[in-house]
Design goal:
Blueprint: E1 2-16, H1 20-31, E2 36-39, H2 47-51, E3 58-61, E4 69-70, H3 76-83, H4 86-95, E5 100-103, E6 107-110, H5 115-128, E7 131-133, E8 136-144, E9 155-163, E10 170-183, H6 198-205, E11 210-216, E12 220-221, H7 224-232, E13 237-243, E14 248-255, E15 259-261, H8 263-269, E16 278-281, H9 288-298, H10 304-310, H11 319-329, H12 343-354, E17 356-358, E18 362-363, E19 371-376, E20 394-396, E21 404-405, H13 410-425
Parallel strand pairs: 1-2, 1-10, 2-7, 10-20
Antiparallel strand pairs: 3-6, 4-21, 5-6, 8-9, 9-10, 11-19, 12-15, 12-18, 13-14, 13-16, 14-15, 16-17
Helix pairs in contact: 1-5, 1-13, 3-13, 9-12
The structure holds dihydroflavine-adenine dinucleotide.
């Protein structure tokens, strides 16, 4: 690649990342009279917004509490979320005439398309005079006068390359200067959508610690016989309670050919670490063991599968699931009358349905994860302004920080709230 042009630009604020938090911060800062540019290496702004919520963007939630977020410092998110409640964002969506609807648990989705949210953000940027510049690779960041550690004098210089994707030989080198630099580059999930570890590298450059990162809101994978069993049930969805020693979620589970997905599993994945066991109650509304023992006394000639097909009250477990469990867990007694099955064995089988213990081999990873757990250590960032405590005029917003939301619009709410808090300080 050869540089064919060099130019210099001066701004009050440079925001790296034209995603949810970056765009939201940009127009709020520009509305205050700041000269703002948003730089992004992608060819489109807000790519993750566009693919979110199955294309309809679950943009926030009516019920946002700090408990819906995880991070090493659980208090960090409170200030920004408290100062920017979800109804503030909803009011903006209303003002733009974007139709939306509520789904279960207070989740708000666009009626038509996630594109409405991106268009809203870009229109706000344009109206406020914030420039959004795409196809721009940042090659270097340096702090000017950083040795003085003085808020007044610290500025940043960015060297960038404006990449012409159609003609790889033509790259325009540019230099940007700004007083305030905002890192809004998100997490590592879905690299094909432009996710990079750039934000973590930039943070480390200025002395920040990065808490270990891993995929969150992501399906679980399994190997061996468990993997085969789960895969054979691909397509089945049912309401469950998924839990571990830390938390439980009463939500639907989905068997897939790769493992376990669905809201219950995605939520639990935020609280899971490799090597840990998870528990799934496949029949949350019924205590299966007492039913089996009662049936043994009342209808001793029945087969176990018949009892499970027909006698779980309002709970109807899919026949395919019962037959697959029979194949794997009680093949030896599948044609035995229930009267001849020992109580211990019935207790074991009952527990399979009410407390199925599983050890995932892993998750599908960043390829399909909705979020990244971990990130920039929030102990080194102001919870009021999102400014670095180590480098004046450097800010971090959105998912690059060690703040991860539950499924349900919480990650976008964090992007809006942290972007807004930062803009107030710029
Ligand atoms: P975001 O990822 O939005 O933006 C980061 C920007 O930085 C991108 O534009 C990227 O191109 C840019 N960038 C990265 N590296 C760069 C570099 N080196 N140089 C220049 N630019 C760079 N949440 C929710 O609340 N409701 C939902 O419905 C969903 N659904 C959903 C579906 C899927 C498939 C995914 C992957 C994620 C979700 N999420 C979600 C999560 C949500 O998308 C996410 O938490 C926010 O977009 C995070 O906002 P940020 O601004 O931090 O990063």
């Amino acid at each position: 690649m050869t540089a064919i042009n060099t130019s210099d630009f001066d701004f009050d604020v440079i925001i790296i990342g034209a995603g949810a938090s970056g765009l939201y911060c940009a127009f709020h800062a520009a509305q205050k009279g700041r000269r703002v540019v948003v730089l992004d290496h992608a060819n489109k702004a807000g790519k993750k917004i566009l693919m979110s919520g199955g294309g309809r963007c679950n943009f926030t939630n009516y019920f946002v509490e700090p408990e819906h977020f995880i991070g090493a410092n659980p208090h960090f998110c409170k200030s920004a979320l408290g100062r920017y409640p979800s109804w503030e964002f909803i009011a903006r969506v209303d003002a733009h005439g974007i139709p939306y609807h509520e789904r279960e648990h207070g989740q708000l989705f666009c009626d038509d398309s996630a594109k409405d949210i991106v268009t809203m953000l870009l229109n706000e940027c344009q109206n406020a005079g914030a420039i959004v510049q795409l196809n721009t690779q940042i090659t270097q960041i340096s702090a000017l006068n950083s040795s003085q550690k003085s808020e007044t004098y610290c500025q940043f210089k960015l060297t960038t390359q404006k990449v012409n994707k159609k003609n790889h030989d033509q790259t325009i080198a540019q230099t940007y200067r700004c007083k305030s630099l905002v890192i809004a580059t998100g997490g590592l999930s879905i690299p094909t959508m432009g996710a990079t570890g750039f934000g973590f590298e930039a943070a480390a450059q200025f002395g920040h610690t990065i808490l270990p990162t891993s995929a969150g809101l992501v399906p679980f994978t399994f190997t061996d016989k468990t993997g085969e069993l789960i895969s054979s049930l691909s397509g089945i969805s049912l309401p469950v309670i998924a839990s571990n020693s830390k938390i439980f979620f009463k939500l639907p589970l989905l068997f897939t050919h790769r493992g376990l997905s669905g809201p219950a599993m995605l939520q639990l994945s935020n609280y899971w670490h490799i090597g840990e066991t998870i528990t799934i109650n496949l029949a949350p509304e019924v205590d299966v063991t007492p039913r089996l023992l009662a049936k043994k006394a009342a209808n001793p000639k029945l087969r176990l599968r018949t009892v499970l097909f027909e006698d779980l009250g309002d709970t109807k477990l899919p026949k395919k699931l019962i037959l697959a469990f029979q194949e794997q867990f009680w093949q030896d007694i599948k044609d035995t009358e229930i009267a001849n099955i020992k109580d211990d064995r019935l207790i074991q089988i009952g527990a399979l349905f009410n407390a199925w213990q599983l050890k995932p081999s892993g998750t599908e990873g960043y390829r399909t994860a909705e979020v990244t757990r971990g990130g920039v250590n929030t102990d080194e960032v102001s919870s009021k302004t999102m400014e670095s405590r180590l480098q004046p005029n450097l800010y971090f917003i959105g998912e690059v920080l060690d703040v991860t939301g539950h499924l349900g619009g919480y990650n976008f709410q964090w992007a809006w709230a942290s972007g807004f808090a930062c803009a107030q300080a710029l």
